[in-house]
Amino acid sequence: MMEDYSYEILDLLKQYDGDTAAALLGERSAHCLYAFSPLRENLFEWVELEPQARVLQLGSDYGSYTGLLARRAGRVVVLDARDENLEVNRLRHGSSERIRYVRGELLGQAAGPGKPGFEEYKPEAGACGTAGELLAEPFDYVFTAGLLGQYKKEEALAVLRRAADFLRPGGTLFAAAENEAGVRYWMGAQPFETAFLEAEFRELFETLARESGGEVMVYYPVPDYRYPAAVYSDAWLPKTGDVTNISARLDGPGFWFGSEEEAMTKACQNGEFTKFANSFLGMYKKADAGDRMRGQL
Questions:
Q1: Which residues contact 30 (CB under 8 A, 6 or more apart)?
Q2: Of 33, 58, 120, 165, which alpha carbon lies 20 to 30 A from 259's?
Q3: pTM of the model as a whole
Q4: Cα 59 to chain center, whole Å?
Q5: Residues 6+ apart with CB under 8 A from 137
């Protein structure tokens, strides 16, 4: 599980008066890079959002891609269980009228669309709708990057089911996670506490499709979902030599046991890229009403 540095990030936002580019130039900490790197937006930059789309972001994630979503969509609701996480996001993007912040635990007993247990975090004066009302109307998209890593592996399906509950028919869920067998971990990088094998991660999304209908696609951010330079998919896999410059060590201590690039080149040659990519990004598109009726005929 990745450590939380919300208080440190809050201090940096105040120190640099909200200028994240200046913070990146002036600081050398890994958590500053994780919070403020513009590479963070690449994970979802390629997703085409309709200007009127309603978007739910699960997990504040230092606001690293909230600005992207707000620029593209009509309304963004950020849901997180901790005030300090929401405060980081609010300080970064509070000037945007398209973003609302809600405090609540996704797997809490009372949590769920239209149910009590959620409270809006520092609502603007005159803002319309309560937290429950904000979440009661289904969303066109649900995005989450590091949320699965905050739960135990056996809770992952419950997390994704709850996330999918917020979708309208035909809506789309994106969720990222670490690959337990990622090439960087074979090379000595420090593993994450919660990670998944490819078959496990894929099964989570295919279970949603079996239960509620819909489509599934798995993507592979390179070098990983935290600092993606490229995003491959089941429909577009890299060729031999495409995966380069993936050896940056930005996530704590580890030892070098070899070249990640060479190992990934061999994986591509053997058709095993999907098993050894460092991260996964799953996409679940919920079936609409017409698809469900046709499936029952």
A1: 250, 251, 252
A2: 33
A3: 0.91
A4: 8
A5: 54
